[in-house]
């Protein structure tokens, strides 16, 4: 029987360097002979993803709760494929996941428990690497674009909500499921920190997949 793949999530504020590191991790794993694939959330390709995309680009208006549920539905529609990949021995690297779902919607003012509940039962990542950058360092990177949530005051509220999300993950699933990674410094420096964390979870390939928030 093949070992299952690992389920690794990268989270962080906008511009923390997630996508850069996700693709680097993917390339390194393949170079080392592992099977790996990237799953971006939101997945803007599906019918639900297209609605989310037009909302984020401010081409459509949606009720806060409705769009929150769309982000969650977007994860549920990808969840079978994720589990299949893991069973087939493919490591899945997710660029954001349910944790962004809570942090952004709660930062807009929705109740935290409401934000967490639609994702109950999704596959639990083996580890979530939370990339931390100070607001000042993030602002020095490529300027925020025009997407809906790319504003400094909202990002500061999102950062506060991510602290509560981290507490919930550590309390319910154990401290090793949520790891903060200092994302300041060069891309190479951040990469070294990420790679050492990924190497530390190899043994989880023998464990069964758990369920989020259960
Ligand atoms: N959202 C998402 C919800 O509200 N609910 C949900 O459930 C989910 C899943 C879109 C929005 O959706 C919200 C959150 C978001 O606001 P997205 O598509 O992931 O989410 O957002 P993107 O705009 O694609 O990605 P980010 O803006 O978050 O950027 P990344 O991926 O963190 O950063 P990256 O790698 O693209 O890098 C940004 C810039 O910085 C440079 C890069 O070259 C690039 O120019 N950079 C560095 N510069 C200096 N030093 C380093 N170490 C650097 N690393 C990267
Ligand atoms: Na990104």
From TrEMBL:
PANTHER family: THYMIDYLATE KINASE
Pathway recorded for this protein: Pyrimidine metabolism; dTTP biosynthesis
A GO cellular component annotation in the UniProt record: cytosol
Name the record gives this protein: Thymidylate kinase
Pfam families associated with the record: Thymidylate_kin (PF02223)
Gene3D superfamilies cross-referenced by the UniProt entry: P-loop containing nucleotide triphosphate hydrolases
Record's keyword annotation contains Ribosomal protein: no
Organism: Kockovaella imperatae
